[in-house]
Amino acid sequence: MPTSPTIATVSSHSALQIMKGAKDEGFNTLLICDKKREKFYKRFNLVDEFLLVDEFKDILDEKIQKQLNDKNCVLIPHGSFVEYIGGRETMRVNVPMFGNKKVLEWEADRRKSYEWFKKAGIKVPHSFLKPDEIDRLTLVKLFGAKGGRGYSLVKSSEEFKEKVGHFDSEKMQLQEYILGTRFYPHFFYSPLTGENELTGIDLRYESNADGLPRMPADFYMAPTYVVTGNFPITMRESLLPDVFEIADKLTETSKKLFPPGLTGPYSLEMVCNDKLELYVFEISARIVAGTNVGIPGSPYSYLKYGKEMSMGRRIAMEIKKAISENRLDDVVS
């Protein structure tokens, strides 16, 4: 690949941030764009070239991949890759992709994620194997990056049957609901430096769960957890060493499970109880939409770099550094 690749992604999720970060670091940009969204993305003047498709899965087409390779593209995966293309299907994409694309399969399958967590020795909520085992408040979660859509909260097998019905172990996880405050720290692991960097923290704004407290006391509706936005947030500083320890354990364990392991951006989804214990309930093993609150930067990225540094720009900076050190193969797969 020539020394100046084109940074590419699909038109959703964190595409604006990725395009802006690439432009800030001097790269050309290409957006694989749903035809209906072209007008929107043109408003920001961040895209040098649009590759129009009918649907995101068109990226699996060999003709599309040839066009991307002819333009020397490096693909930046985000949540829409996991949800609309699929973790396993992404493995078929024969275009250089930032990070280790093997990790997307471990993210998409919650059973594999839990195997990873347990081998890393970190605290996780209990996961029930079947509805009959449910004996406490439990969140029914669907596999994949669905932004909270389709989740249900139940406290017994009877309530599961009433709210959900059929249990499919290939598509659902029954996860103990830990009461506490939620945090979604964003990390970047650099294989060039061997360092984990905290680049920000967010909290999700969910419908209708975050709207229900505004209703009268005698009103009841079952909560849903569809992510509609994100808030920036900071964390009690005395908890941050524990957060870094968890991140370090996960990245080191990943090197054994799927070499060369987790690289580039990722986010831990965790809850802190009133004993100040941290439980990890999920991982997003690529850039998350919550990093959009960190444009142009966050308090933590400023502490690290002393300048504006979004996750999108951090990705582009890593690619630029890898090229200068003739190590691009270490940051793409």
List keywords for this structure.
333 residues, Rossmann fold, Dna Ligase, domain 1, five-stranded antiparallel sheet, four-stranded parallel sheet, 30% helix
Assign the structural class, choosing from mainly alpha, mainly beta, alpha/beta, alpha+beta, or little secondary structure: alpha+beta
Q: Please report which band the strand proportion falls in: under 5%, 5-15%, 15-25%, 25-35%, 35-45% or over 45%.
A: 15-25%
Low-confidence stretches: none
Quote the CATH topology of the domain at 6-99.
Rossmann fold
Q: State the total count of DSSP E strands.
A: 13
Give the fraction of residues assigned to helices.
25-40%
User: What's the helix count?
Assistant: 11
Name the strands of the widest sheet in spatial order.
11-10-9-12-13
Query: What's the rounded overall pLDDT mean?
Result: 92
Radius of gyration, taken over Cα atoms and rounded to an integer in Å: 20 Å
The CATH architecture of the domain at 6-99 would be: 3-Layer(aba) Sandwich
Q: Distance between the terminal alpha carbons, to the nearest Å?
A: 13 Å
What is the H-and-E element order?
Answer: EHEHEHEHHHHEEEHEEEEHEEHH
CATH class of the domain at 6-99: Alpha Beta
Largest sheet: 5 strands, antiparallel
Overall body shape: globular
